[in-house]
Write a structure and sequence with these properties.
Protein name: Galactose-1-phosphate uridylyltransferase
Pfam families: GalP_UDP_tr_C, GalP_UDP_transf
InterPro entries: GalP_UDPtransf1, GalP_UDPtransf1_His-AS, GalP_Utransf_C, GalP_Utransf_N, HIT-like_sf
CATH class: Alpha Beta
Number of helices: 8
GO biological process, one term: galactose catabolic process via UDP-galactose, Leloir pathway
Number of strands: 12
Oligomer: single chain
Order of helices and strands: EEEHEHEEHHEEEHEHEHEH
Shape: globular
Pathway: Carbohydrate metabolism; galactose metabolism
Structural class: alpha+beta
Number of domains: 1
Distance between the termini: 51 Å
CATH architecture: 2-Layer Sandwich
Amino acid sequence: MTHQEFDFTDHSHRRYNPLTDSWILVSPHRAKRPWLGQKETVAKSTVPEYDEKCFLCPGNARVTGGSNPDYKSTYIFQNDFAAVKTDQPTLPAHMDFKDPLKNKLFKVESVRGNCFVICFSPKHNVTIPQMKHDELVNVVGAWQQLYNNLSKEAREDGKPFKYVQIFENKGTAMGCSNLHPHGQAWCLESIPSEVSQELKSFKKYETENHCDLLGDYVKLELQEKTRIVVENDSFLCVVPYWAVWPFETMIVSKKKIASVAQFNEKEKDDLASIMKTLTVKYDNLFECSFPYSMGLHQAPLNAVGEELENSWFHMHFYPPLLRSATVRKFLVGFELLGEPQRDLTAEQAADRLRALDGEVHYTEKL
């Protein structure tokens, strides 16, 4: 075998994700293989501004009765099909199955909470990259208000609220059942596993290094610049070094901010701005309405002590498209049974996103 210099753009390697204490296999040479698998259907832009059959449009009846107000901006309401509920029986803290094996292996706990729908806009036919800047500032403000309201309800009214996971599934490829621009917020009396693991990793890193994991990561990305997609005064958007999804990105605050509750007006404005620029780039990448799942990771509600000290606001964007508007990345086979794997490096993905127009939406070019 002849000696070759290792090439990160062509040779397989693994990358460590310090947020989740896990590894990902990177196989950049696989991107050269021909694709004969499933292709998605590109949705046509024929969605009306108002849809009388939509359960989220202003003034329309909801499926469980009642109707939406004639809202003009971001509108939040309780999910009619909530995944968790406040009013339900609780299980004993240590449930006894009367069987030693079951007690060891079949652990269970009740979970209460509430779920909300967040309509970004009264217009049925827009998405985040198509919304105006001040409209997106309203969305960020609504996230902040919801976080503060839920914190108050937990603190003053005894509601079983510990963490609120705010997220958006955009596009049918990500399982979105209603195309009206909206996100969700699931509020639980426990911290979800993914967030809990991040908080543990942040604590471990701080204990070992006496500094913040994401603080160091921001410093390193600003130093290297190879994975930066876009930045502004308050936030940095990068393709993480350990990204799993082909064009996965992370928006992270440049300074330590625990949650949206701590945002000032400048930071709300900057988050709206960087979200719009990123999602416009996404749409321009394959000239389609780019699907993704997006979520905010931040401090638990009413966090104090280590929970508050270890929290650092950031957002994850997980888009599934790999080669074009019709070719999707599936996590199957080795990814499910071994560990996550990707076919292009984070640096290659960042190069492509960084080079894209961040100002003009693709529909304006047709």
